[in-house]
Amino acid sequence: MPAAEESYGVNKVVDHICQLPPHLLTEACQHILTYLQGQTGGVDSAEISDRFRRAGVRLEHEDLQNMVRFLLLTFRSAGKSGLSGDDLVSRLEEAGNKWPKASLQVVHTLWSERGALVHAQQEVQALLSIGQLVDMQWKLGVAVSSDTCRSLNSPYVSLLLKIVQPPGQICHRSFEMTVPQFQNFHKQLKEMAAVMETV
User: Fold this and answer.
1) SS3 state at 170
2) How far is CA 161 from CA 131, 138, 176, in A?
3) Each residue's pLDDT tens digit, 56-102
4) The pTM is what?
């Protein structure tokens, strides 16, 4: 049953997209493609909604959000796959939704013009993306002895970092530092925090 509900949801979103006049669909797609090219910080749904309203197109807020998400996902996955305009249109047609020719022409034209730029931006983001620290645990320990020294009695700090890598998978990194190394690390973190507060 969830698959049928999901299919209904996608069909409803596509119906809303297909009811748009070509010039409004072009504007909405241009907003999304500009974001995917890294030229803006996000897609301004309020601006798109205002433009639709001025043109006499009434959409519920949730329907507009779903439409923007669908187009974002469509263009983002086409960029990751390196699809041409023809390939993207073929995939949309194969999905089983009845797209009007005018809507497909808008998607084809815009993707043919800007798809390579979106693909290039996604490759750059993949190269430059780094993991995000989501958790850090530490403990203080004392090394009592080692295989080379019977009476070591040396304090150390053990850190365990939990990092989310760009594809979404979580990895753990652990390392140990001497107390002076940890104090230097702490000092650097405080300096970074101070700089971040000024931004």
Assistant:
1) strand
2) 11, 9, 11
3) 988 898 999 999 999 999 999 999 899 999 999 999 988 767 888 99
4) 0.63
